[in-house]
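User: Hey, quick favor. My workstation is busy. Could you predict this chain's structure for me?
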Amino acid sequence: MSLPLILACLWVIVGALAATLPGRLQRIPASFLFFSAPALLIWIGATHGYIWTLAGLIAFASMFRRALIYLVCRAFGLPARDPRLKLDETP
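Assistant: No problem, here it is.
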């Protein structure tokens, strides 16, 4: 197995471990995962082909869907909800 795939497996394990932490302790590991994912996906695509990058991108979007929705709303100037709130909660 190549180094990018080994690091991707470790990325998934760290993500699963970070998900078990209480919400306030998830910020640092989640930030690391969020900002390291694009570089890792590009490396996987360059090494193994971009179909695997697409698979990784789908997994990344699934894991960070609320943060990505928040960032897209902010980028387009739309009202953005706090991604830490559940969908049925009001601020």
